Predict the 3D structure of the following.
Amino acid sequence: MGFLGSGEASVTYVLEAGITVTLLPGLHACPPPGPNTSHWPEFNWTAPQEFVILGFSGWPQGLRVLLFALLLPLYLATLAGNLLILVLALVEPALRTPMYFFLGALSAVEVAYTLVLTPRMLAGFLLPPGGQAVAPSTCAAQMGLFVALGGSECLLLAAMALDRYLAICRPLYYPQLMTTGLCWGLLASCCFGGSVLAVGLTTAIFRLPFCRGGLVNHVFCDLPAVLVLACGNRDLQERVLLAACLLLLVLPLVLILLSYTRVLVVILGVGGAAGRRKAFNTVASHLTVAVLHYGCATAMYARPLSSRSLEEDKLVSLIYINLTPLLYPAIYTLRNRDMQGALQRAVSQRTPGMTHQAEIT
């Protein structure tokens, strides 16, 4: 971010990719901080009255309207797909198993995740240039919910891998091990772990001093985009962020890969062709989701601030906010015969002719 001029009337800044932002009198943004510490004198470190989420406000209006028109259907399809999986997992008796319990929970988390991020991002495409002003409490709440839901999703995927490992590698003990109580306990632990991490990270970042009028060069209050605005020493916060990435991304992914490697060995060694095909399709679906989720998240967050480009991060965010959540219901519904059968039964029960015929028989 480059400083061009200042005065009582206004202050003008040029961001990456040529984005120009003019702030009203009384609002001043930080000059570019160093890798870990701002060089502004401490008497200028003041709590901002608001953050300005720039999004793509510097792009031409026609392009922003086009992006809105393309991403809105994806958002609606994501909501519909995840809600469909959640409803089927709740009402269909054939799907009341631990695997679909976790799948329904994952869909519920995805619905909340997209509700936290996508509507405000879509609104930003239609607003006048200059970005969206949000209160610090709103920015902190959005960041906290994003981390809590994303962290819960990471842990849920690991719980799903554990379920598949026990079901395939320990089939005789599976009913005694994966009980209803254990399923709810794992779900509660995943949500609790994500929430604790969210509170810790959000508190650590917002305890730092910021320059007034912080410009968030992102589509939402993402952790790195807000952390670079801090005017103090950010070493501790950056180390905490990297440690959280290791805990929530690298470690669960290693455990998932190890468990599914063992599952694939068992599948290839025992059972008939039909059973192997069904088990392999289930594992392939879960593994695809895990690789997509952890791979994208690791590429985004397991990097130091000094090596980041906020403009590139903002473009990548369009993928993990809009495209990746849509792939989850597509993978689970298109590749899963149990889910397809449950959907067909649900549709047939609502068809008058089919319902009448069922009553006669």
